[in-house]
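Tokens for Endoglucanase. Go.
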Amino acid sequence: MAPKSSNSKPSFMPFSLALSIFFFLLITTLVQCANGGQNYPDALHKSILFFEGQRSGRLPPDQRLHWRRDSALHDGSFAGVDLTGGYYDAGDNIKFGFPMAFTTTLLAWSVIDFGRNMGNELGNSLKAVKWGTDYLLKATSKNGIVYVQVGDAFSDHNCWERPEDMDTLRTVYKIDKNHPGSDVAGETAAALAAASIVFRKRDPAYSRLLLNRAIKVFNFADKHRGAYSSSLHSAVCPFYCDVNGYQDELLWAAAWLHKASRRRHYREYIVRNEVILRAGDTINEFGWDNKHAGINVLISKEVLMGKSPDLKSFQINADQFICSVLPGIAHPQLQYSPGGLIFKAGGSNMQHVTSLSFLLLAYSNYLSHAKRSVPCGGVSASPAALKRLVRRQVDYILGDNPLRMSYMVGYGPRYPNRIHHRGSSLPSMAAHPTRIGCKAGTKYYLSPNPNPNLLVGAVVGGPNSTDAFPDSRPFFQESEPTTYINAPLVGMLAYFSAHP
């Protein structure tokens, strides 16, 4: 399971000391991009298809990855609630609410900002969002309760079995007023609010349902403050333990509710709580746990449009975020590999690559509309320069890298064949109809053979800081795909499909 993002505060070196390095890397980026020639529409198609391979519950008639079958059809039954559906977050069979909600938020944001670029894939993107929100509505169906996890991670991780076969504990974990979880509840509210924007014109009744539920869940998260890993430590740690704190999720949810509802109340909440909830912390962190960079970029759009001058500090933070991730700046939490990939210490590095790159692309569009650039010491980061940097990250993922390997399964001539994923690595139900038990799957886990089922579109954790990659299941930090790696990539691939 991917570890937490770093939450250290940023520090900067004088820009003049890094100026020559910056221009060298920028020129290198331009040359590499010019030589890329990636098929972005194909990659977009596959990046969305991946989510169908992560579906839990009863699969619909239009399911396109046919080696997957129905699974976990009784989730929630012991707790008297229907918790079927949703997504498995990665290569295991647990439904973790925190990363699932973040995945849904980023899928929704991808549609909001880049849906017009998705072409024929827009319908599939909407289905991916709705598969997430349908589950989140179930998880928030009881007032004052949010169901945040289905399955015991320890028993699940002790087995290597298909989701269709799993017989491990399907324990249901929840938060309530006596066991708060403002982080996971706040992210859930953000996901519901963001999705309400997606469906506002496409399905007004569903959009209203999402928004009303988002408001209720946010009120619960704000009234009963606390981190869910304090309430449910033994269940969620060390897998999706909240290291960064719950404050950022409250601001994040308020920002999405302001965008979705257009109510002044939420803007006032943001202004009132900006310092208390540490909006300026860790400006170059963004992921399922730390929302700070995302908050600043999201809110800045309004400021750049000439609205909400009382939120100017968020735009200042967003500008600092941009400068902190530019190549050539010495930064303890963010580096670039020799091949040009964003790299942060810890596991599953691609989650940082796709999430941070998504913010760079979104902000570059906001800057373009405002006709401005970001001043970074002695240079100015233009929207075009930011887009080139993002394209370099996307092209690296798709194969323009030292190993000439695509890190998206099924894309290009060479990609990972032994990903850390139970369903992909075990024989399908069609090939092996009889049950494969908990420990019987171990031989497939240890096998040097390629996975028999192609999880098309899955982007794995990726190479290390030297661009080396072991195509091996046991190296889960490098070889495991996750939904929150793919979700922001969907938006970027949509943009570059329309702007090759």
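The two ends are 34 Å apart (CA to CA).
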